[in-house]
Every structure is written in structure tokens, then in C-alpha cells.
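A common beginner's mistake is to predict each chain separately and then try to dock the pieces by hand. The better habit, illustrated here, is to supply every component at once so that their relative placement is modeled jointly.
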Amino acid sequence: MFDNLLGSFWPYTIDGLILGAIYGLVALGYTMVYGVLRLINFAHSEVFMIGTMASAFVVMTLGITQPLTGFALVGGLLLMVLAGGAASAGSAMLLERIAYRPLRKRGASRLAALISAIGASLFLQELFALVIIPHVFNRPQQGRNQMGVARIMQKDTLFTIGGAQIRVDQVLIFVASIGMMILLDLLVNRTKIGRGIRATSQDPETAVLMGVDIDKIVRVTFLIGGLMAGIAGALFVLQFEVTKFSIGFLLGIKAFTAAVLGGIGNLRGALVGGLFLGLIENYGAAIFGSGWKDVIAFTVLVLVLMFRPTGILGESLQQARA
Amino acid sequence: MSTNSSMTNGRNAFWAFIDGIRDRWASAPVWQRWTVYVALFVIALLLPSDSLGHVMSPYSDWASVLFFPIGTYVVLAIGLNVVVGQAGLLDLGYVAFFAIGGYSMALLGTKLGLNFWEILIAGVLLSALSGIVLGGPTLRLRGDYLAIVTLGFGEIVRQTAENTDAIGGPRGIAGIPHPPSIDGIEVFGVQIFHYGVLDPRPYYYLLVVVATAIIIFVKRWEKSRVGRAWAAIREDEDAAEVMGVPTFKFKLLAFAIGASIGGAMGVVWAGKTISINPNDFLFMLSATILAAVVLGGSGNIPGVILGAFLVAWLPERFRGLSEYRTMVFGAALVALMIFRPEGLLPSRRRKAELAEGTGGMGSMGAEVPGPEAQPAAEGAAK
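With all components supplied together, the output reads:
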């Protein structure tokens, strides 16, 4: 039973870390929105999906058939990340404006906001399956199929650890995600807007009295969360070379699991939770078979919530939850 | 607020009319109420008529549509309403209990050869047990955390079914027996107790009877000490605890009751369907049932029935637009939450709760009352 895991421990570890880094990036969006609004932004999974779609669109529009090299590769990668980030950030802000702000202004319940989010999520998935993939991507009748995306970079092996070949793209994804998280951490802890975010998540009423523009903070929160999800989407496309209208659903739930694992509202926790979940999932798949991957992830979620509901690192963006 | 005042007036007049009817109802004597109840039951039995079917469901067999999705959604919504509407616990994995009921019917029927009525009891007990198993460790969590854990539980149940070859894996189970028939009892040309393959009406009548029994039970619970305890928990859990309500016990009870209703419906549904597989129990179904509860007005049984009926019937009626129906459904949910978050027919108590706060569902953070908003009673209470 454990032979498989022990036999190829390092490959499983590497895959787990890569997947975990992507979970972590998406988890940031959940954790920040939850910190500021106490809202599970259920449609964040669709924000991620839109990021994958935008970067797939870039690859398609550039007409890439052969892997690129040199400056063309750097430019192509940058374009993918920019497109993914911009599309996701834009859709996240639009989502906030249309589906959440009217409810927030009226002081609606979180249940109402969650239903609104589920509605928005369904709408966006169907929008892609019925309109955007058939017409913009020019794949009529294939809106619900998985879309392959051309390989943009040569996936050469860079070095090996204990029998696992580590490829260039994996290093790139890992470094890029960690880098984004460090940048975000600096933004939240060192800048004025970051102070506003922290203040709002601790005590919105006092924050308003101190001159924080809540609406702006909420917009910025969605912007940043969307940006991270979009970058995660681009990296996902780079790594797995597929996307689909419903690709966000499971990944979104798992990213939320990662956010809870790390301690919701805690930015560094999102990374820790993501990596932890990615590893557990891969090790679990190695032991029980890959069909059980998601079951393992959710079981971990239930266990963590039972025994340590504040997550591994504890909550920090806010002090207590309502 | 609205620029179009005549439209606003028209809308207000409509809701005032509805309110008038509800006032009459609230003060109606017992015999009048019973007349209405009996009339409703008879109407429910008369629903699967062909002439109505032409109007209501031109694209598929009306009696089948009445059984699934309409009747099934109505019962599931009533069950979920116990958890969400009455006790105020957000459950996003309700489909798990439906699945457990369905698989009970399938497994006990094909492997052990038990009959439908025995399995109905077993299925209800099993799903209630699973509700307790899930609720026991997780009901100490609040609000959104509970929502996510239940969502996770729903997926665990489905994927476990998908990965366990002993119960059919992804192909599911086929050859599920029908309920035992009693032949020869014919009313208006319908063999009402003949559970065969061709005529869906007997199954629909069975469902109406089960649904009526469930509604009576749920209504009685609502008016009892249990129902008052649930209302107290929903409005303010801490205050309820301080007032001596054993909140954990009552939350667990709500979970178990909701689960057993879902399980009962699973058994009844599988008794007609012949074969089930894990893809019958997707998250989408949980979301749809939750939407039905909220659309109708969570906490109010007539409202919930109306909501479930609309959510199940509209997509069937407008199959012409079938491709776009999920998309329209999603947009409609957003619009509904923006314009009428209390649902179409909210219970009065619930409406009052919502007017003074968020009905115990917790407010979003970063919510600062503007000139239009009500004072945030929720925030002050904590």
C-alpha cells in the first residue's frame, strides 16, 4: 500500500508543491475577501476559471504551435500572466459591483450574499460554456469539453532530487507563486492601502471613523484577490495545458480548504495551507489511488475544522470572527 | 427610491393584497383552514391531468415531471428548510442525505431483497444517523464554516460512491426494485397502487402521501418546544444558550430531521428510477434546493413549496430555451438576492427578523449603515 508512495516519494512531493502553490494563490482571494467582508466569495472559483481562459486565449491568438524560446518566450509568458491577471481582476471587481455591493449596502445577510455568489458562479460557468468558448474561442458545440492549450515552453529537466526530475516550468511556477505572495504580504503589511485593509478587517466601523474609505478597500481587495487568481490561472495553464468551463469548481473548493487550513484571513497561512493540502492530496492519492484525491482533501478539511478551526497558523487579518 | 412610482405602487399593491390574504388566514377559524388543507390535498391529487399537462409541460410527460423534479424538489426543500429556514444552519451538502436514501434503496433492494416499505424505514434511520455523524463533530462550527464542511461532506459522499466498486463505482446500481404493487384498485382508470414502469402516476400519489406526512410532522415540530428552540437559535445562538436552550442538542436534532427527510425522498425517488449513479447527486442539486428554499422564503413552508415548484417547473416549461436555462437561473438568483432577499413568501417572523438585522445569518463585515439601511442590530448585539 505504501510502496507506491515510498517508491516515488519525490515526484509526488514535487507535484504536490506545484499544485499547492496554485491552491495558495487562489486561496489568497478567498482569505482576503473573507477577512474584509466575512463572506465566502463562492464565485472566486469562476474568477480563477476566467484567468485560465484569458491565458489560453493569449496562447491561441498568438498562434503558438511550437514551444517558444528566448525573448519570445519571456514575452509570451508575460502576456499570458498579464491577460490572466487583468481578466480575473476585472471580473472579480465586476462581480463585487454587481453581485455583492447592492447586498452589502442594504445590510443583507451572509446567506443572501452566498446565494448571490452561487448564482453568479452558475451564470459565469454557463456564459463560458454557451457563449464564450463556442464563439470567442471558435469551438462551436464544444463549450462543455475540455480545451487543450498549446505548449508554450519547452519543459526541460533542470535538475533532479532523489529521482524526481524537476522541470523548468515547475521551478518557474513555484518561484512565481512564492514571489507574488511575498509582494502581497509586503503590500498588506507595509503600505497605506494595506493598513486600510487590515483596519477594515479588524473593525469596519472604527475604520470608517478613522477615515478609511471602505468601498475603496473592498474594491482593492477584490482586485488583488482576482489578480492572484488570474496569475494562478495562467500558471495552471502553463503546467497542465488544459482548461474547461467548470475547472474552477473543485479547485475553488480546495483553495478555500487551503485558506481554512492556513487560518482564514491569514495571508501567509494561505500559502502554508495550499502547500500542505497539495502535499496531503498527492501523498493520499499515492496511497489510496488517485480517485480518492478529493475525498482526502475534504476529509482533511473536516478534521482541521473539528480540531483546530482557526487553522494551522491561526487567523490574523482579523482578530475574531463574528 | 424608485424613479418609476407607478410601478412601485403596483408592486406594493400586489404585496399588500398578499398580506391581506395572509391576515385573513391568520385569523381564520379551524374549520376553514381544514377545508383549505383538504382542498389542497385533493388538488395535489388531481394535478396529473392531461389537459393541465398540455399547458404546464408541453415538452415532457407531465406526470413524470410532477414526480421528478417538481415533487422531489418540494420534499427536499421542505427537509432543507428545517435545517436552513428553521434552525438557521447553512447546509450546502444536503444532496448527501438524498444520496444516502437513494443508495439505501438501491443496495438493500438489490442485495438484500428487502421491500420498499422496510427500506423506507431503514433509509430514514440511516440518513438520520449520517446527519448525526456529520453534525456531531461539525455543528460547533458556525455559519460559513458549517456551510463549507457540509459542502465537503456532500462531495465526500458522492466521490466515495464513485470510487467504491462494491456499490457500482461510477456506473452506479441498476435494477432497483419498485415498491410492491397492489393490483386491482382502480380509481378513474388509474391503477393507483400499481408501481410499474409505464405509469408514473402511482409514484406521484405515493410521493404526495409521503410529502403530506412530512409536512404535518414538520408543521407540528415548528409549533412545539423544538420549533421555538430552533427559532431562538436562529435569531441569536448565544442568547438562546444563555436562556437555557441546549443549542447543540437542538441543532443536531434539526440536522437529523432534515437528513431523514432527504433520505426518505431518496428512497422514494430510487424506488421509481430503476438505476442510480453518483452523478445524480451533484453539488448543483444542493445549490438548487437551497435556492428553492431561499427563493420561496426560508422558514415558511408554503413559501418553500412555491419556491421548489418554480425552480423545478420553470426549466421544464421553458425547455425551448433549455440551453440557456442554467445561465438564466444563475442571473435570477443574483437579481432575487438584490431585489427581494426575503423570498417570495417569507414567514412573518422571519421577515421581522430580517427587517431588524440579518435574520441571525450574520452580517457581512465592512457593512456600514448608510442613510437607507436599517440600524445594524446584529452588530450591536455581539
